[in-house]
Amino acid sequence: MQLRCPYCSEMGGLNVTHSHMVATHHDLLRTETDSESGKMYYVVPCPLCGLSYRHRVKPRNRNPRFLSEFRKEIALVAFDQMLYHVVHEHPDAVGVKVDELRSE
Ligand SMILES: [Zn+2]
Ligand SMILES: [Zn+2]
After folding, report:
1. Within a 13 Å sphere around the CA of 99, how many CA atoms are in the beta-carbon half?
2. What is the phi/psi pair of residue 53, to 5°?
3. For 46-70, how does the pLDDT look when each residue is reduced to its tens digit (9 = 90+)?
4. pLDDT at residue number 103
5. Cβ-based neighbours of 89, under 8 Å, separated by 6 or more
6. 20 Cα to the center of ligand 1, angstroms
7. pLDDT value of position 104
8. For residues 10 and 44, is the Cβ–Cβ distance under 8 A?
9. What mean pLDDT is predicted for residues 16-42?
10. What is the SS3 assignment for 10-28?
11. Which residues pair with 45 in a beta bridge?
12. Are the C-beta atoms of residues 24 and 16 closer than 8 Å to each other?
């Protein structure tokens, strides 16, 4: 299955596009800590519908530098979610046919 990167239209398979997004578009990933609860989140924008995906990050320990130290790992998860989102919500826009999804 081939698809287009939703941020810049580069073509590739799922894994290639995932690595490409992490390597090329990691500055789009934002991380934030709620000052009251101390809960951590990552936010990644969908360029196709304007939705921002906000998910809770649950570190295994209470490391206040978690978000900066584990940025790469967070990016891997965040762009994986975004890839899933665009493939299922915007298949036409990323060049995926719905029958290709069913067969995988
Ligand atoms: Zn791209
Ligand atoms: Zn979207």
Report:
1. 0
2. -80, 120
3. 999 998 989 999 887 778 788 888 9
4. 61
5. 46, 48, 49
6. 6
7. 55
8. no
9. 94
10. CEEEHHHHHHHHHHHCHHH
11. 52
12. no
Which ligand has the nearest atom to the CA of 82? 2
**CA 58 to ligand 2 center in whole angstroms:** 24
Q: Which residues surround ligand 1, an ion (CB under 5 A)?
A: 5, 7-8, 10
Cβ neighbors of 9 (< 8 A, separation 6 or more) are none
Instruction: Give the tokens for residue 103.
Output: 């067969």
Number of structural domains in the chain: 1
Q: 30: closest CA among 41, 39, 17, 43? A: 43
What gap in Å lies between CA 60 and CA 81, rounded to an integer? 20
Containing structural domain, residue 74: 2-103
Q: Which residue has the tokens 């965040």?
A: 78
Q: Where are the beta strands (DSSP E) in 1-104?
A: 2-4, 11-13, 30-33, 40-45, 52-57
Distance CA 36, CA 88 (A): 35
C-alpha 97 to ligand 1 mean position (Å): 20
